[in-house]
């Protein structure tokens, strides 16, 4: 743990923290400069090839392997503190730690070309000791620590509190991200979801299945979701990313579908891609 804390010091040796599968959770400034990439292009990605002699230290949280800390000895670059990572607090009970907070923001969803606001997507903005933490970083760290469910429910509960505290715009939909792990644990999700569904007109809550960390869920369980969670609409977030596939769509039958941004840009790049988009929209 002492070695990992060096990520938060102005250490000149490149240092990086990866999950057990080798995906980057956070890195100090020296590593970002060594890799030649900014923070958003590193988090969640696999490690680039490291030079011989790279040091590696396993990191355990609650007796469970959570990550590996690696550094490049002998490589000296001006450093600054690493991007804040709550990896050491994403453990059972972390939501009760006063150093941790999550605040929702609401992004309007606008219909084109008229510009009508159809609703708002709730986005979580976590922080640790007052420092912003990238949501993707939070969920990768939670997955490494085995607490995806707790992290997701904490974000969902923060959204519910904000919505219930003030009048909701008439006629507006509310899109809320929820992980497959939470959906498959209805006894934990219903207590935070049901008051939200009851407070808004029928069908105004849209559960948006997120893909922060892909999870293998049996097809038969996806088919059960509309029965287990009545009174809501469904949306698939970032279709084309993770485990989202046509089989899931046929099981859940979402009313809304959001294509992954990279997939969309690639499809728009040529005539064949645009034709595929039109056909896909017609099929969906």
Textual characterization of the structure:
It comes from Candidatus Hydrogenisulfobacillus filiaventi. This is EAL domain-containing protein. It contains ten helices and eleven strands. Residues 1-8 and 79-88 have low confidence and may be disordered. It is an alpha/beta fold and 284 residues long. Helix content is 33%, strand content 25%. A hairpin with a 5-residue loop joins β1 and β2. The chain is globular, with a radius of gyration of 21 Å. α3 (135-145) crosses α4 (148-164) and α4 (148-164) packs parallel to α6 (186-199). Strands 5, 6, 7, 8, 9, 10 and 11 form a seven-stranded mixed sheet that branches. A four-stranded antiparallel sheet has the order 2-1-4-3.
- If you compute it from the alpha carbons, what radius of gyration comes out, rounded to the nearest whole angstrom? 21 Å
Average pLDDT across residues? 76
Shape: globular
Number of spatially distinct domains: 2
The top level CATH class name of the largest domain: Alpha Beta
Low-confidence stretches are 1-8, 79-88
Query: Number of helix segments?
Result: 10
* SS elements, strand count: 11
Give the SSE order as H and E letters.
HEEHEEEEEHHEHHEHEHEHH
Distance N to C terminus? 49 Å
Major sheet details? 7 strands, mixed
Features:
10 helices, TIM Barrel, 2 domains, disordered N terminus, 25% strand, 284 residues, alpha/beta
């Amino acid at each position: 743990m002492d070695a990992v804390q060096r990520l938060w010091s102005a250490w000149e040796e490149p240092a990086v923290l990866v999950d057990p599968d080798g995906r980057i959770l956070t890195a100090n400034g020296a590593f970002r400069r060594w890799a030649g990439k900014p923070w958003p292009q590193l988090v969640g990605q696999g490690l680039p090839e490291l030079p011989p002699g790279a040091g590696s230290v396993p990191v355990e949280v609650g007796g469970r392997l959570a990550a590996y800390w690696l550094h490049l000895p002998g490589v000296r670059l001006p450093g600054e503190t690493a991007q804040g990572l709550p990896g050491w607090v994403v453990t059972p009970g972390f939501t009760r730690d006063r150093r941790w907070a999550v605040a929702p923001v609401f992004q309007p969803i606008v219909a084109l070309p008229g510009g009508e606001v159809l609703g708002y997507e709730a986005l979580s903005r976590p922080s640790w000791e007052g420092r912003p933490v990238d949501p993707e970083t939070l969920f990768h760290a939670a997955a490494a620590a085995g607490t995806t469910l707790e992290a997701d429910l904490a974000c969902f509960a923060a959204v519910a509190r904000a919505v219930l505290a003030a009048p909701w715009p008439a006629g507006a939909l509310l899109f809320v991200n929820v992980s497959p792990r939470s959906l498959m644990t209805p006894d934990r999700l219903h207590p935070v979801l049901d008051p939200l569904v009851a407070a808004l007109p029928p069908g105004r809550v849209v559960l948006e299945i997120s893909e922060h960390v892909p999870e293998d869920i049996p097809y038969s369980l996806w088919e059960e979701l509309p029965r287990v969670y009545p009174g809501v609409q469904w949306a698939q977030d970032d279709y084309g990313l993770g485990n989202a596939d046509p089989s899931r769509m046929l099981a859940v039958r979402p009313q809304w579908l959001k294509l992954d941004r990279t997939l969309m840009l690639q499809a728009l790049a040529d005539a064949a891609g645009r034709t595929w988009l039109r056909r896909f929209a017609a099929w969906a």
